TrEMBL record, chain A:
Family as reported in the entry's similarity comment: Belongs to the ABC-2 integral membrane protein family.
Main location: membrane
Record's keyword annotation contains S-adenosyl-L-methionine: no
Span of the signal peptide: none
Species whose genome carries this gene: Leeuwenhoekiella polynyae
Residue ranges crossing the lipid bilayer per the database entry: 52-73, 79-97, 132-152, 164-184, 196-215, 257-276
Membrane protein topology class: Multi-pass membrane protein
GO biological process, one term: lipopolysaccharide transport
Protein name per Swiss-Prot or TrEMBL: Transport permease protein
From TrEMBL, chain B:
Name assigned to this protein: Lipopolysaccharide transport system ATP-binding protein
Family note: Belongs to the ABC transporter superfamily.
PROSITE patterns linked to this entry: ABC_TRANSPORTER_2 (PS50893)
Pfam families per UniProt: ABC_tran, Wzt_C
InterPro entries: AAA+_ATPase (IPR003593), ABC_transporter-like_ATP-bd (IPR003439), ABC_transpr_TagH-like (IPR015860), Bact_Polysacc_Export_ATP-bd (IPR050683), P-loop_NTPase (IPR027417), Wzt_C (IPR029439)
Gene Ontology molecular function: any one: ATP binding
Superkingdom of this protein's organism: Bacteria
Keywords: ATP-binding, Nucleotide-binding, Transport
UniProt signal peptide: none
Positions of the ABC transporter domain: 44-269
CDD domains in the record: ABC_KpsT_Wzt (cd03220)
GO cellular component: membrane
């Protein structure tokens, strides 16, 4: 008798390290889009202002940052208006933070779903990165509006030629956020400590990510010089700086540093993915 | 021979007992250290058979151990077993919610699992949006859902509320909507847990009917887990009986259900009394000790042989007959009939309790035996003492009415017509 080897798939006790079935993920693309839709629709259901909250958050943060860091602490933002400078930082940072926070909750917040039905688990973090894009695009719109406003007011603002690289910068930021998020969400299933950690770690991370100050400010400061590497090598800081250089021509734009960011993010992403995949197979037993 | 659609080989699943807390990091480390050196996982060796009631000294337990089975195309396989036998774990592995510790499952078709209805419902979304979301989670394509949308809505009976957020639904409506989505799944292999036990009676009927359509009419392969022996029997063709994580029995659904019903159950936790002066030697039905098939036209004679080491004035015997879903059909007690029975002398005795023909309806019965007295003291107790299956001899109702008569008993009425 002929050996039957034409199985559609196998459920195995062991699995290769990086087993990602792209065909399967593609088959679940409808689910991906429905998750995105669900996240966007349900985020501000039964609120009066709805998606307007996406505008209000960065606006107020921008104003506060400008008051505190520029008017009180008088951080120099070069030729760019401080408010716009902060808004650029906040927009990019909040995209990263949203990717990170939402993905780092993947297993904990979807436990009920994951316990009952199978679909490629990677769908959930990807859907988070996509729905965060919705918020980002609204915030970019405000950024553009204020950009126009300041140009009209006589500021000599001009986007740099490197602006076409913006999708790449955004992609690297997303991959980094997803990678870290997946790593943390996997660890959270076993060791709950990481959930507590992530809450204040993101806030602290913001302060070393050059969100409300330029990297040059740190490099020029005498007292902080020995810690400057922390910010110089922080991929988020580099990416935010690159974004500000593209739009406001303020900050550092360095191909080598961007390459470093890209490689580091990819490495973190793949480590996160491997750990996430392995966790996804059994996490329901440990959560 | 390529009609085997699903094959499980040596499936085992190990769980850790106690709290997952201190010690896990150490065990993880040991595990990985062993793996690094290319050795076998040290914790896979230990672990006891999963018997809930026995206290174990091991830290790890096998919820499933070396499960092997095959499912043919179009077959409806019932998986039954007591609580904790490993049914749910097996379902979880089949539906890829969790991975087995060892073994492999090979499948030729896509598996959709219904371990729960309404998985992934988001209460802020409307009924319609939830149909799409739930359908996609269960593995349907968007176009497929759109095609079946009207059918799903009609089946659920929630037309009026379809554009209302599901948080405004009653729980019954949510379940109906969820089941409607699930019922319109068209996977090659469907794995169903006891989701039928939801909704009102009318909806349950509809659900079971739909399940029957799916399994019989459309030739789909279904793996069905339930405690309801009546629905297992009516839906499934073959069965597997799990006990303490092992396959105890496999075969036709009839055999397996009988095997299930004859597992001594733990429904009463009270200590079984055992009095030295009373020795029950034998409890037989129609001269047989084994489970048997009887016609409803036969008289049932329960024969009890026993020995008394002292005289007892008030001893009585009680037979409790349960149907296959565990409902008590009748309790026969000897002191209701023959009060002389109480005054028994020392020595060997042989008592026969007779139940007339044409009283019990078709079906499977299981009998618990008790020796008690007037005051309610129980001197002897034996659960699942006998089991038997009643089939219609087609004498009373003839060939005309072939199906099972409704009701738990099947008496013939006396009819008197006054002219």
């Amino acid at each position: 008798m002929e050996e039957q080897e034409d199985w559609l798939y196998e459920i195995n006790a062991k699995q290769p390290l990086l087993a990602i079935d792209f065909k399967e993920i593609w088959r679940y693309k409808d689910l991906l889009m429905l998750f995105v839709r669900r996240d966007i629709i349900s985020a501000y259901k039964q609120t009066i202002l709805g998606p307007l909250w996406y505008l209000i958050q960065p606006l107020f943060t921008g104003i506060i940052f400008t008051l505190v860091f520029n008017n009180i602490a008088s951080i120099n933002t070069g030729g760019a208006p401080p408010f716009l400078f902060n808004l650029a930082g906040i927009t990019m940072w909040s995209y990263f933070a949203q990717c990170l926070n939402n993905t780092s909750n993947t297993f904990a917040s979807n436990a009920g779903l994951f316990a009952k039905v199978y679909f490629p688990r990677i769908i959930t973090p990807i859907s988070q990165a996509i729905s965060a894009l919705f918020k980002l695009s609204i915030q970019l719109l405000i950024f553009a509006c204020f950009y126009g406003y300041f140009v009209l007011k006589g500021y000599a603002l001009q986007p740099d030629i490197t602006l076409w690289l913006f999708p790449v910068v955004l992609g690297v930021l997303a991959i980094l956020g997803l990678g870290l998020g997946m790593l943390i969400s996997s660890l959270t299933t076993k060791y709950r400590d990481f959930r507590i950690l992530i809450g204040f770690a993101t806030t602290l991370l913001m302060y070393v990510s050059a969100v409300m100050y330029p990297i040059s400010e740190v490099q020029n400061s005498k007292t902080l010089l020995e810690y400057a590497w922390l910010i110089e090598l922080n991929p988020i800081a580099i990416l935010i700086e690159a974004f500000r250089y593209m739009t406001l021509q303020e900050g550092i734009f360095n191909w080598g540093l961007l390459g470093y960011c890209g490689l580091l993010s990819l490495a973190i992403f793949f480590i996160g993915l491997i750990v996430f995949n392995r966790t996804g197979r059994n996490f329901i037993d440990t959560i | 021979m390529s009609d085997i659609i699903l094959k499980a080989e040596n499936i085992s699943k190990q769980y850790r007992l106690g709290t997952v807390g201190s010690g896990t990091l150490r065990d993880d480390f040991k595990r990985n250290w062993a793996k690094l050196r290319g050795m076998e996982d040290p914790f896979l060796k230990v672990g006891a058979v999963n018997d809930r009631s026995q206290k174990s000294t091991e830290d790890y337990v096998w919820a499933l151990r070396d499960i092997n089975f095959e499912v043919k195309q179009g077959e409806v396989l019932g998986i039954i077993g007591k609580n904790g036998a490993g049914k749910s774990t097996l379902l979880k592995i089949l539906s890829r919610v969790t991975a087995p510790t060892t073994g492999v499952i090979k499948s030729r078709g896509r598996i959709a699992s219904l371990l729960e209805v309404g998985t992934g419902f988001h209460h802020e979304l409307t009924g319609r949006e939830n149909i799409y979301l739930n359908g996609a989670i269960l593995g349907m394509q968007k176009a497929e859902i759109t095609r079946k949308l009207d059918e799903i809505i009609a089946f659920s009976g929630c037309e009026r509320y379809i554009d209302t957020p599901t948080k405004r639904y009653s729980s019954g409506m949510t379940v109906r909507l969820a089941f409607a989505v699930a019922a319109h799944l068209e996977p090659e292999i469907l794995v169903v847990d006891e989701v039928l036990a939801v909704g009102d009676a009318e909806f349950q009927k509809k659900a079971i009917g739909k399940m029957q359509d799916i399994s019989q009419g459309e030739g789909r392969t279904v793996l069905f887990v339930s405690h309801n022996m009546a629905s297992v029997r009516s839906l499934c063709s073959r069965g597997i009986l799990l006990e303490n994580g092992l396959v105890k029995l496999r075969g036709s659904i009839h055999e397996v259900v009988e095997g299930y019903l004859s597992i001594p159950n733990n429904r009463s936790t009270s200590k079984k009394p055992n009095y030295k002066w009373l020795k029950i030697a034998k409890i037989a039905l129609n001269n047989s000790l084994k489970s048997q098939e009887l016609y409803n036209g036969e008289i049932l004679k329960f024969n009890i042989e026993f020995q008394l080491l002292k005289e007892h004035q008030e001893l009585a015997f009680c037979l409790c007959l349960y149907d296959e879903s565990g409902g008590l059909v009748v309790a026969l007690n000897t002191y209701h009939k023959n009060e002389d029975f109480f005054k028994l002398k020392k020595g060997f005795h042989n008592a026969t309790i007779v139940l007339d023909k044409y009283i019990l309806n078709n079906g499977f019965y299981i009998v618990d035996f008790f020796a008690n007295d007037f005051k309610g003291n129980i001197y002897f107790q034996l659960e699942n003492a006998i089991s038997f299956n009643i089939v219609d001899d087609n004498v009373r109702r003839g060939e005309y009415f072939k199906k099972k008569w409704n009701g738990s008993v099947s008496l013939l009425p006396e009819v008197i017509i006054l002219k």
